[in-house]
Amino acid sequence: MPEKMSNFFNQFDYASLLQNAIRIVIIIVVAYLIWGIIRYVIGRMGDRIVKHSENRGEDAEHAKRRAGTLTSLVRKVIAAVYWVAVALTLLSQIGIDIGALIAAAGILGLAFSFGAQDLIKNYIAGFFLVLEDQISIGDIVTLDGTTGTVEAIHFRTTILRGADGAVHVFGNSTINVLSNLTRGWSGYLYEIAIDYEQDVDRAIEVIKKVGSELRGDPEFGKSVTEDIEVWGVNKLADNAMLITGRLKTVPGGHWATGRAFLARLKKAFDDAGINPNPNPQQIMLFDSKGPPLRLSQSAE
Question: For residues 66 and 134, is the Cβ–Cβ distance under 8 A?
């Protein structure tokens, strides 16, 4: 028995095994060093994207989000290709014929491409979604009627977090309508109902005054980018005149700014004696000489 064990171990070329082991260690160490360099280059690429975007006058925060999204996806693609190449190199060092593996992988890949066309469409759509800078991580968007904050963008899927905390996952190739609510600037559209008995010019004057005060406010003034726009009476409704306009803000700042604007406008209208919310009433008039009943409306 000892003689058989000795013959078994004598079959191995320990020098070759040691050399292969050293080569494998060197390949792994060099692979990690090269990967560190690749990550550094990708990071520098992201910094250049941010700098280039800022030079073009784009919002710095948006530029950082876009660069982070793009570099993340590029890193994933390069990592997949790179580490597969490293794995094949290691397999060749232990005597496995990688040519046969590559040929088999090619055949499997061809078969996979026919059976996973939707998956490939998702990957292509996800690539152009980021390349064309349609959305970035952190943007508030509406995808096919669902609104939320972009939490992640993958080549296959885009993930939104709704205001109620729900997570919505969209296949990139299935997105038909995309609305980005925080790109470049945001706008709060207001519609104020004014009683017909009120002075329209006076109401518009109060609206402009509140907008001006809001822009000069230490807290909300940072969000308001332009003077308030008052487009005038946009509609004559049954019981009120509708004055419309817009507040332009920094991306995503229109919700909080709009709420503050309405609260201040309500107080300003009260101080000015303007009734912004008419309360229609039905008045029944009886006339013995005419029809038994006649209806009319008025507002108080």
Answer: no
Residues 6+ apart with CB under 8 A from 18: none
Global confidence as pTM: 0.59
Q: Note down the domain range covering 234.
A: 186-280
pLDDT of residue 11: 52
Over residues 242-269, the mean pLDDT reads 92
Do 143 and 232 lie in a common domain?
Answer: no
- Sequence-distant contacts of 76-82: CB under 8 A, at least 24 apart: 76/155, 77/155, 78/38, 78/42, 79/35, 82/34, 82/35, 82/38
Count CB neighbours of 243 within 10 A.
Answer: 21
- The two three-digit tokens of residue 222, written as one number: 């940072």
CB 249 within 8 A of CB 184: no
Q: Looking at this protein, which amino acid is placed at residue 92?
A: S
Beta bridge partners of 178: 143
pLDDT at 252: 86
In this predicted model, what pLDDT tens digit does every residue of 154-206 receive, in sequence order? 878 899 999 899 999 998 888 888 999 888 789 999 999 988 888 999 999 99
SS3 state at 248: strand
* pLDDT (mean) for 30-48: 88
CATH number at residue 191: 3.30.70.100
Tell me the C-alpha to C-alpha distance, in Å, between residue 132 and each of 69, 210, 220, 269.
12, 39, 32, 46
Q: What are phi and psi of 244, to 5 degrees?
A: -120, 160
Radius of gyration of the CA atoms of the chain, in A: 33
**Tokens found for residue 97:** 């014929």
Q: Please indicate, yes or no, whether residues 7 and 68 belong to a single structural domain of this protein.
A: yes
b/e code 161-188 from CB counts within 10 Å (16+ = b): eeeeeeeeebebbebeeeebbbbeebbb
